[in-house]
Design brief:
Layout lengths: L1 E3 H4 L4 E3 L2 E3 L20 H11 L11 E15 L2 E17 L1
Antiparallel strand pairs: 1-3, 2-4, 4-5
């Protein structure tokens, strides 16, 4: 997901004008049929619980960010140009939770 910084922060951010935020979304597939999924123990238990139809049922595990990367930005602050590092601004990997 490309974020157009210049459209959001007019003039405050000098560089970059945009960055790749990435995102994780969607329902995770069935772990029995897809061994490539990275599921936490919690998500595996949710699938097991759903498979035996106990009530109340937990929600189906969803794909969420599991790690993030930093993004550096040159900003204009009080007439000065400063480098700011924003931690955890871009999703770099996903997992089922």
């Amino acid at each position: 997901m490309q974020v157009n910084i210049s459209a959001i922060f007019s003039g405050a951010i000098l560089y970059p004008s945009a960055y790749e935020a990435n995102y994780c979304d969607g329902v995770c597939g069935d772990p029995e049929n897809n061994t490539s999924l990275y599921l936490t123990s919690h998500a595996r238990f949710q699938y097991y619980y759903l498979s035996i139809a106990l009530k109340p049922s937990p929600p189906v595990p969803r794909c969420v960010p599991s790690s993030y990367s930093t993004v550096a930005m040159l900003m204009s602050e009080g007439g000065n140009t400063v480098l700011r590092i924003f931690d955890d601004l871009s999703a770099s990997s996903c997992q089922c939770l």
